[in-house]
Design a protein that fits this description.
Elements lengths: L28 H12 L9 H4 L15 H4 L9 H29 L1 H25 L2 H30 L4 H29 L8 H22 L14 H7 L10 H4 L3 H32 L13 H37 L1 H24 L3 H30 L4 H8 L1 H23 L9 H19 L12 H10 L7 H4 L7 H26 L4
Helix pairs in contact: 1-6, 1-7, 1-8, 1-20, 4-6, 4-15, 4-16, 5-6, 5-8, 6-7, 6-15, 7-8, 7-12, 7-14, 7-20, 11-12, 11-13, 11-14, 11-16, 11-17, 12-13, 12-14, 12-20, 13-14, 13-17, 14-15
Length: 543
């Protein structure tokens, strides 16, 4: 018995040639998704390039003082500054949301293999072009390669596995998407240390090898993401896990529907915009802390981070130790951000998506209000613990929302709907850091002490979470008028060239996990665990 469709004329990348055969095991989809998300997750680790990129010219031109951003885009005689570089991050995060929204519907029809391969070309190729821009000292080319082309790769790569995983794991939607999106949170734990090592071994004349590193990592990411894309298989229409029925889910949770809303109709539902706000507000609060975690810890606690050991240090040694401690917090943030994605999404399978977000907002408000208290009492341990819990919920918000969308709008077009929802991240990625940095600077300009400048900001973040809680509580099941009827659903499935529906499809793909499964999981698991070890080692500096 086989469910593989090999329609005449279909190419290797086409969706009809990715429909799983009878011997396939659904647990092979997860490492395929991780191959993509561990690579694009380097987005969170790009800050390792900023300082080395400011020191590419050993003897800059004497006229470089006061050079503006526009001039920096084309200068070959002056070093770039950090503010002119960090907009690269904002560019590819913005393009992530835009490209996911634009091409989400196309992705559903062409399948994860083609979309994942194009994502590999864009992200890997974009990094290589960025490396070329560094070698030519043309900042505009770095923006074009890493920011724009890489941003398209980010968007396609981020949403590619979602629809596929949800359809393979209707019984564990949260856990399945949690595994993949955990990879995005953990990508920096793997990629950042690799980038630092590559820059060091490619250094020459005291200048770190940024361009070589970006080109090498671009090539690595292209290969790994391509392996993930080529390994994808989609579930036959109507496929169900052994011993599970949709009726079980419907009975367990009234918020889960077995019907489907079309992509073009979803934006006319209040549920879409409520969940959009839920994600946006959760991310705005969390990303603000991520953006300012290191200076926040240094400003609030200073030498108190060092305890009694700081008393015997010289001022320079104290400063270096404080910076090292703050870097340890950044390592822990990466770890908790990543692991929280799997933990909370898996928990949402048990308690429901809506209740999971209630916990995010209620617990988050309490922790944001407590952070200033820990600062005033000079208790860095509780401050760090609170930040780490907040970051688990930041990551958990990302991994839980695809399953939330599938529950509310059905699974047929959930990848495309997720693509449109991700625009909330683009908005939050700009709003969060702007709020926390802007309020901080305003208070510094008005004479507020450094250790107190974050209090008001953190209370503002708690207020944003209160609004998010209200939006989440307002989410109800979608009205019947928004769902596709049988003819519309059949037409949409016909566009996917999927002819496998039927009784046989429900029991297909029951293959053994086998040696291939262990090898594939080890190939993605070992690098991830190495990243976890490095993050823990950095975090221990705090204690």
């Amino acid at each position: 018995m086989t469910t593989a469709a090999t329609a005449g004329g279909a190419g290797f990348l086409d969706r009809e040639n990715t429909i799983a055969s009878s011997g396939y095991n659904r647990w092979l989809v997860v490492p395929a998704a991780l191959c993509i998300h561990l690579c694009i997750g380097m987005a969170y680790g790009f800050s390792v390039f900023w300082l080395p990129m400011t020191k590419l010219i050993a003897t800059p031109d004497a006229s470089c003082t006061g050079l503006g951003f526009i001039a920096m885009l084309t200068t070959t005689k002056c070093n770039w500054d950090v503010p002119s570089e960090t907009h690269i991050f904002e560019t590819f995060i913005a393009l992530l949301g835009i490209s996911a929204a634009i091409w989400g519907g196309w992705l559903e029809r062409v399948g994860p293999r083609k979309a994942g391969f194009i994502a590999a070309i864009c992200w890997g190729g974009g990094m290589a072009i960025g490396g070329l821009g560094v070698s030519m000292h043309q900042l505009w080319l770095v923006y074009l390669g890493t920011g724009v082309i890489g941003g398209v790769g980010q968007g396609l790569g981020y949403i590619t596995p979602v629809s596929t995983l949800i359809k393979w794991f209707p019984d564990r939607r949260g856990m399945a998407t949690g595994f993949a999106i955990m990879g995005y949170g953990g990508g920096a734990m793997v990629g950042a240390p690799l980038a630092v090592w590559l820059m060091k071994i490619n250094a020459h004349d005291g200048i770190q090898g940024v361009s070589q590193t970006m080109i090498i990592m671009g090539a690595i990411y292209f290969v790994v993401m391509s392996i993930g894309a080529f390994s994808f298989r989609v579930a036959p229409v109507g496929w169900l896990p052994e011993g599970w029925t949709q009726a079980q889910a419907d009975k367990a949770n009234a918020m889960i529907t077995s019907r489907h809303v079309h992509l073009e109709r979803v934006i006319h539902t209040p549920q879409f915009w409520l969940i959009w706000l839920v994600l946006c507000l959760n991310v705005t609060a969390g990303i603000g802390v991520i953006a300012m975690a290191s200076p926040m810890l240094q400003d609030v606690f200073g030498a108190h981070l060092l305890g009694n050991a700081g008393a015997s240090m010289s001022p320079d040694a104290q400063k270096a130790a404080i910076v090292a401690a703050a870097a340890g917090l950044v390592g822990l943030i990466s770890l908790f951000n990543s692991l929280g994605r799997l933990f909370w999404a898996s928990l949402s399978d048990k308690i429901g998506r809506k209740m999971t977000y209630v916990i995010f907002f209620v617990l988050g408000m309490a922790l944001y209000v407590l952070l200033p208290t820990w600062g005033h009492m000079q208790i860095p341990g509780l401050f760090v613990l609170s930040v780490c819990i907040i970051l688990t919920m930041y990551g958990g918000g990302f991994s839980t929302v695809p399953a939330y969308l599938a529950d509310i709008f059905g699974t047929q077009m959930v990848g495309a709907i997720h693509g449109r929802l991700i625009t909330a991240w683009s908005v939050a990625g700009i709003a969060g850091p702007m709020i926390i940095a802007g309020v901080r600077q305003y208070q510094l300009d008005h004479g507020v002490a450094k250790n107190l400048v974050y209090d008001r900001t953190l209370y503002i973040m708690a207020g944003l979470l209160l609004v998010g809680l209200i939006c989440n509580l307002l989410v109800k099941p979608v009205h019947d008028k928004h769902f596709m009827d049988d003819d519309e659903l059949a037409q949409e499935r016909a566009l996917q060239h999927d002819k496998t529906a039927g009784a046989a499809a429900r029991t297909a793909a029951r293959g053994e996990f086998g040696v291939l499964g262990f090898v594939f999981w080890a190939a993605v698991g070992v690098p991830f665990l190495i990243g976890v070890w490095i993050a823990l080692a950095k975090g221990l500096v705090l204690f």
